[in-house]
Write a structure and sequence with these properties.
Elements: E1 41-45, H1 49-60, E2 65-70, H2 75-87, E3 94-99, H3 105-119, E4 124-127, H4 143-168, E5 175-179, H5 193-213, E6 219-223, E7 233-234, H6 245-250, H7 252-257
Parallel strand pairs: 1-2, 1-4, 2-3, 4-5, 5-6
Antiparallel strand pairs: 6-7
Helix pairs in contact: 1-2, 3-4, 4-5
Length: about 270
């Protein structure tokens, strides 16, 4: 959400509120109706509000193949995706619903094989796997549940990237997007030590992927969607989704020159 004047922003992190204006609704520069993704193959991991909105937006942009992976009934999401394409006067995509367990290597490997067989490859992967914990100080937390968040927020994205990278390397866009959080930058009194640390590790993992596969034109990055319950960067950098994209792109040369928006130790 936009910053409220005079109100502390405990989750505000690097990369937030860089532009004026900032946005909480779709605006012309990011309107999916203004682009064509015909022929693109997309895999969205997660079917919550963010995952569904992502899949719907790709349908509105004309993506031809959309796979959705989650550990729940995907019938409503599939219907919403197909309807979004029709409403946008696009050809309905081929939609593949996959029962996916991010904690299972076998489940992820099976998803990779199914998408390869059905789509012949993949261009874009969006991983929305974040989970929140019960907010308690570390000593009062449940140890198993605390570590379970690391399994969901880090091991899950790692397993997806590891399984799909060979396919991504053969694709066109070679893009992996992780839905991250400003909590990766913050140490505060919200008693979210598992969430904050696992999201910090996810951000750094994206940076390692960029370092390891950047020469092969793979583009892994994180997106912080704003101050949501879930919801930070390009090649290890961090920028918020609410920033005005034309203004942010106009700052590209300066950001690259200064090696800005990066996670680092300041001394």
């Amino acid at each position: 959400m936009p910053p409220l004047e005079g109100v502390p922003q405990p989750l505000a992190g690097p990369g937030e509120y860089l532009t004026d204006p900032i946005h909480t609704r779709t605006y012309p520069a990011v309107n999916p109706l203004k682009v064509s993704l015909v022929g693109k193959r997309v895999f969205v991991v997660g079917s919550g509000a963010i995952g569904q909105a992502t899949a719907v937006s790709y349908a509105r942009a004309g993506a031809s193949y959309i796979a959705i992976g989650a550990h729940c009934d995907l019938t409503p999401v599939t219907a919403a995706v197909k309807q979004a394409a029709l409403d946008a006067e696009r050809k309905p995509p081929r939609v593949l619903s996959i029962n996916l367990d991010l904690t299972s290597t076998t489940s992820i490997d099976n998803a990779e094989a199914l998408i390869q067989a059905s789509f012949g490859g993949i261009d874009i992967i969006v991983v929305d796997s974040g989970a929140l914990e019960e907010m308690k100080p570390a000593v009062e937390s449940n140890m198993d549940k605390w570590w379970e968040l690391w399994t969901t927020n880090l091991r899950g994205p790692y397993q997806v990237a590891r399984a799909f990278l060979p396919m991504i390397l053969k694709g066109g866009d070679k893009t992996i997007v992780f839905i991250a959080s400003a909590a990766s930058h913050c140490v505060h009194t919200y008693e979210m030590s598992a969430y904050g640390t696992s999201m910090l590790a996810q951000l750094r993992f994206a940076a390692f992927l960029a370092a390891e596969y950047g020469d092969e034109e793979v583009v892994p990055f994180c997106v912080h969607l704003g101050d949501l319950a879930t919801g930070a960067g390009v090649d290890g950098a961090s920028a918020e989704h609410e920033n005005n994209m034309p203004q942010l792109m106009a700052m590209k040369k300066e950001i690259v020159k200064e090696d800005g928006l990066k996670l680092r130790l300041m001394v």
